[in-house]
Design goal:
It contains 8 helices and 8 strands; from the N terminus they run E-E-H-H-H-H-E-H-H-E-H-E-E-E-E-H. By secondary structure, the protein is of the alpha+beta class. It has one domain: Muramoyl-pentapeptide Carboxypeptidase, domain 2. The strands form 2 sheets. Strands 3-4-6-5-7-8 form a 6-stranded mixed beta sheet. It has a two-stranded antiparallel sheet with strand order 1-2. Helix 5 crosses helix 6. The N terminus is likely disordered.
């Protein structure tokens, strides 16, 4: 059942269309109970708010409701507290999230997943689970940020320098293989180069 008075930090309450959105619960109440007042209202961790993990110009333009269910919310908390916060503290500069949670409909749209095969591939990503964020630090290049995270030995599932523009950073409670990747465009097609930690040392700056 959908809660017609779904609560959302900094946005008050608003109705959700029948059959869309997360299972019924109030995000404000959930965050307050989980954190016991430790974080600022509407924040998942010391530095990162729920709003910035959900914002999406594409979702707004396409009318897609990009709101989490409880599992996605818990995953975002873990990502923020155990991945993004350590980066923010260590760099001591603002870390900007350009893409956080992508609900299935949003992820399909971004990935142009219009066949069963493409949808299955899109579903394997970590953005729809709330386990990944694309990030930038405005005073650093994506390669510098990517390099800093590797050197800092922060645990991650996947780390990608994507096209020299942003860093895809995935951290989950189940833990991952620490996959290190560089993505680039070759003849207009995306090419992903997977590296061992030793191989990655050649590309660090």
């Amino acid at each position: 059942m959908i809660n017609k008075d779904f609560c959302f930090p900094s946005h008050g309450t608003f109705p959700l269309p029948s059959g869309e959105g997360p299972t019924s619960f109030c995000l404000d109440d959930y965050l307050n109970k989980r954190k016991g007042g430790k974080y600022k209202p509407g924040y998942l961790s010391d530095y990162f708010s729920l709003d910035e993990m959900l914002k999406s110009e594409i979702a707004a333009r396409e009318g897609i409701i990009n709101l989490p269910d409880k599992s996605q919310l818990k995953s975002m908390e873990f990502l923020c507290r155990n991945g993004l916060d350590p980066v923010r503290r260590g760099i001591n500069k603002s870390v900007h999230v350009t893409s956080g949670l992508r609900v299935q409909a949003l992820n399909y749209f971004i990935k142009k997943a219009n066949t069963p095969e493409k949808k299955a591939k899109a579903d394997r990503g970590q953005h729809p689970k709330g386990e990944a964020a694309d990030i930038q630090v405005y005073t650093m290049s994506s390669r510098e940020l990517w390099s800093w995270i590797i050197k800092a030995r922060i645990a991650f599932d996947q780390l990608i320098d994507e096209f020299g523009s942003w860093v895809h950073f995935a951290v989950s409670e189940k833990g991952g293989a620490g996959v290190i990747t560089i993505a680039s465009l070759v003849d207009g097609e995306a090419e992903y180069k997977h590296l061992s930690r030793k191989q990655a040392e050649e590309f660090l700056v």
